[in-house]
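Worked example 4.2. Below are the chains of a multi-component assembly; read each line carefully before continuing.
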Amino acid sequence: MIVSKVPSPSRVVRAIWKPLTVLFVWDVIVTITYYVLPFSAPELPVTLFGTVLGLFLGFRSNSAYQRWWEGRGLWGLMINASRNIARAARNFMPDPEATELKRQIVYRQIAYVNALRCQLRRLPQDEEVLRLLPKHEKDLALQRVNVANGILDGTGRRIDEARRNGWIDTIQQAQMEAVLVDIANSQGGMERLKNTPLPFQYRFLPMLFTHLFCVLLPIGLVETLQFATPLGSTIAGLMFLAVLTIGDDLVDPFANDIHDLPLNAMCRTIEIDLLQAIGEKAPEALGPDKHGILW
Amino acid sequence: MIVSKVPSPSRVVRAIWKPLTVLFVWDVIVTITYYVLPFSAPELPVTLFGTVLGLFLGFRSNSAYQRWWEGRGLWGLMINASRNIARAARNFMPDPEATELKRQIVYRQIAYVNALRCQLRRLPQDEEVLRLLPKHEKDLALQRVNVANGILDGTGRRIDEARRNGWIDTIQQAQMEAVLVDIANSQGGMERLKNTPLPFQYRFLPMLFTHLFCVLLPIGLVETLQFATPLGSTIAGLMFLAVLTIGDDLVDPFANDIHDLPLNAMCRTIEIDLLQAIGEKAPEALGPDKHGILW
Amino acid sequence: MIVSKVPSPSRVVRAIWKPLTVLFVWDVIVTITYYVLPFSAPELPVTLFGTVLGLFLGFRSNSAYQRWWEGRGLWGLMINASRNIARAARNFMPDPEATELKRQIVYRQIAYVNALRCQLRRLPQDEEVLRLLPKHEKDLALQRVNVANGILDGTGRRIDEARRNGWIDTIQQAQMEAVLVDIANSQGGMERLKNTPLPFQYRFLPMLFTHLFCVLLPIGLVETLQFATPLGSTIAGLMFLAVLTIGDDLVDPFANDIHDLPLNAMCRTIEIDLLQAIGEKAPEALGPDKHGILW
Amino acid sequence: MIVSKVPSPSRVVRAIWKPLTVLFVWDVIVTITYYVLPFSAPELPVTLFGTVLGLFLGFRSNSAYQRWWEGRGLWGLMINASRNIARAARNFMPDPEATELKRQIVYRQIAYVNALRCQLRRLPQDEEVLRLLPKHEKDLALQRVNVANGILDGTGRRIDEARRNGWIDTIQQAQMEAVLVDIANSQGGMERLKNTPLPFQYRFLPMLFTHLFCVLLPIGLVETLQFATPLGSTIAGLMFLAVLTIGDDLVDPFANDIHDLPLNAMCRTIEIDLLQAIGEKAPEALGPDKHGILW
Amino acid sequence: MIVSKVPSPSRVVRAIWKPLTVLFVWDVIVTITYYVLPFSAPELPVTLFGTVLGLFLGFRSNSAYQRWWEGRGLWGLMINASRNIARAARNFMPDPEATELKRQIVYRQIAYVNALRCQLRRLPQDEEVLRLLPKHEKDLALQRVNVANGILDGTGRRIDEARRNGWIDTIQQAQMEAVLVDIANSQGGMERLKNTPLPFQYRFLPMLFTHLFCVLLPIGLVETLQFATPLGSTIAGLMFLAVLTIGDDLVDPFANDIHDLPLNAMCRTIEIDLLQAIGEKAPEALGPDKHGILW
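Applying the procedure described above to all five chains together yields the following structure tokens:
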């Protein structure tokens, strides 16, 4: 996620030089053709086309934004639920009998969110996940297709262990199980976003129509704009392309891209909160890197 | 659900050659008539018509998309609830007394989601459903009008059996019953989407108006576009038809069509998660077929 | 609710012949006047008016559709809750002591949804409601202003009876009471939709502005469209009237009209599900009548 | 809330004669100036201005409508919760020991909703509130800044009294406390709507821009509409003013105005439901007054 | 939050004199250039640009408003939950044994909301937070990265203390823990809004496009508006800038700005409600300052 206020110029240049050049060259070709070989092309269809396309792209960016925001909301719920499970574990269970179990539950939760982060970003399970799990747990969880799910199942067993030891009763267990349900629901929601792209029509048609529009635009404008066509047409074309790109950037909020949600930073936030909740030393929060990107 | 990034050309050709031909022929007829028998047709009404129709189609695609996304969300909830019921069963009930019952609950849930899939797609209950149920259960469930519902009722009875055996207490039963309520609510939401089409007006009028618009379009444009009419008018017409088609494709997310939700794949995901949760061997996940379609 | 794919021609004719005639006659009058007594009327204000009106009508249809869909969602919740109360009753309570009580709870729920249906449609309580209630219950419930509410209160007493008999404990009672809360909330939501029309401004102004627009339309178009005015203006006018009508049709989803929700069919669905859940013989599902309408 | 289908003419005249006169006089002045002292004023900026203003006003009416509908939804939840607390009290607590306490809980809830109504409408606590509370309760509650909140706190103590008497156990108390949480949440939501107007920008700018637009409109139209300007411009101006007014009317749904929610009628509905639930005689429902307004 | 109905003129002047001057000077320069060195610049691209930009800005203001309203909703939930925790504490726990503990829970909740307020506004923890906590608590909480979270954890421990003392049972504890979950969820939602700005594209591109539009506007209008260009173009430009600014003002509802949510006033509301709930003397409510701003 980009947190800097202004874009780095080099990133802007890298992002737009290609479409800019293509658009400009095409607009110049059309303008020259018009002066060499005058043709008559009314602007009305371009206006009509542009309006409908604007509505279409607007709807698509809107959907993409909502997916991005829903993804953020689901990670927010995950942060809340992580705090809730830690608070419940710490307060419900007696010391010193259950101290070690509490630590395990908290460690497991930190491992869980990191495992989920790796799964969502399609990365292999990294050191953040493995370091907090005991060896045999690690092996067991890694055998599951859905590693995060395996870790969560194990947390449920730890809680039941506390009940069998008489440290909590079934009501307190039910309360903690309800938090596990919240966690499982957040995870499910994230997997839904990850595994379900926008419908094919919303991926392919806007791209097709926008490019078609950029091709037709100078033809429709040249009679009116004359030699100013390359300028006017390129600016308008870039604007439409920018709106198209916004949709692509936001639609998959769990990819590993500069526009995506800062899962690393959020996992660290959870780690700090949870370790401090059981009185352990916590690492530093993650800040944006030197390019102003929070990962 | 189409997961490939670009459309297969053959699918595109099959999808558009008919409307393309009809539109083009009509546009050519209008253009020829105009040159043979000049008439004066101002473009204003076409613009006004096009704008209002654009708003109308936009609203309709939007509603259709929301139905599709709601359908996906409901299956997401079903996946979550399936994991929750399995985790609760495994953790709450004691081993080895309840081991067989846990297996039954998990098997029933896999049978349940497959039964629901068949019902939603209006297919007969297939082998996936039947193989995991004991013989007499199968017969009992198949007598119900709503087979999935019958299987769920039976799961509730299994849970009560565990309570009567003293394996869980009523609080744990209540916790598990709450998950059954989540499952029943998801099912009910899916049946609502399946059984309630868009209101008649949103099915019939956009189709009528779009076709009418395609008929009027070349008449309104021919004076301006002259001999370029067939090209301009056909492109614009196809665009409106495309938006109309999107609505039709997404409105029933549980049909058995290439644009619909990949229920097979999601049922398989549930099967894998649940079997691994009780330590059994799970089948492979389903991937897209060779045409890039996930069913 | 209309379930047929194409509209019956007779229904279409009946629905549009009146506005069609009025619009057409007025458009012809304006056109003739123009040829007899030429006047100059620019089209711009009509375009501006049309755009703003389009936005206004669009918003209103949208709100009406959302009310309709919310109504459907609330009945969906009612179906789910009915299944949940039946499943809980059947599974929590012991046989054979509580068999008769279970039957009563299921019968009451069927009576309840039918009573609610009659209340929402402003019909007198019909035979469907009364046949399943014992005589003295019937009299008691019918004395209440809100009959459905009275039946629900009685169901709550039956559940408490089961608790006092020691058939269920207070946890199971709480679980069932939570389902009654769901039922009461659905009912309350339906009554809210029924008793709260759209704000006056959204009922009156769109009607006023649309009719004003239909009057002004031919005056604004005649200079451009010439003798084609009656055709063009009538089509455009009908389109705006159609959008206006959609709003009126959907805004009260619980009326007893062809566009409204099929409450009869949904009550029957509940009846079938619930009777089969306790192993009794269920009636047939209701299908659309010969005009393709599901009531 | 206006429930009559057509507006009373006198109300319409009273509502629009002032803006109508002002608009018309200004439009006539502009037209006369134009004929006396011709000036050239192209219509384009007016169209552009009108479109953007239309979007702006559209968004604002939409927000206002959503606030109004949310307010209605919150009162709907209050009605449901009132029924739920009464049903729970009646069913959970034993007769005849708890009969008096049940009556108190029901009376308190009726007093509570009336107190809330007075608070939201910024009226002093009226007789409806006070008559149902015992003398010392009245004094205690009236000392609180938030009277309704004080009454609710007292209801919670009554429920705890029942628990201390052994009439209900803590599970049943928790179930009733959950309903109190619903009630407190509804109240909080209503206070949020009441105390948070639309952001300043959405209150001031639309008013400013709409009036500016009404001033500019005849100047932009006079060249095209000529002597028809006063008519065309006044109609268009009134339409924009109407949309502006809708926003103002709906934005505060708890004021004491003809467009606001019928809190009196809804409090009476609750009173009838609750008194009948404990078998007491209930007053009549409130209907609209002779002007077709439901208060 | 501005609560006054009309803006203070000095604030308006301060807000707009800079853009007003810049726009006007530029518009005059363009107009003079046009008269000195006539050029031909058609208005079409400006219209097309303006429409697309209008949609874009509209979407952005909409999103910003929704964030603002969500932020208000989350504080509303916090107010409700604060009342719920106080009511539960007061009613569930016995007097006089638990009187001191109840007071602590209420004081902690007041400290908690004030700590959260400081965190969200990026202010150091102020006197409001510290005065209500005992010395050692203060030190403990201030060591946490997330101070509010630390206070909440401590409240959970107080509640468990009540359970260990036998003052409440685990069911009542679970009920109170559920309120703590509500509180943690509200806090998490607020932190989500605070830490997640709008995506970069929605922050940077609207600003860029709006400024570009203001530059191009007089060039496109000058041929039509002639010497009225500076007036027309400045008004239109200001309007677009106003809409741009709305987005910036609302997008971060927890900043310490005149447009942001009145967290001080809401914390005070909670303090009054909670102190009165345990019968202590409460301070006065906070009103708007002399500029009509509620902080």
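Take a moment to check your reading of the output against the notes. Chain A touches chain B through 51 residues (CB under 8 Å). The first helix of chain A runs from residue 9 to 36.
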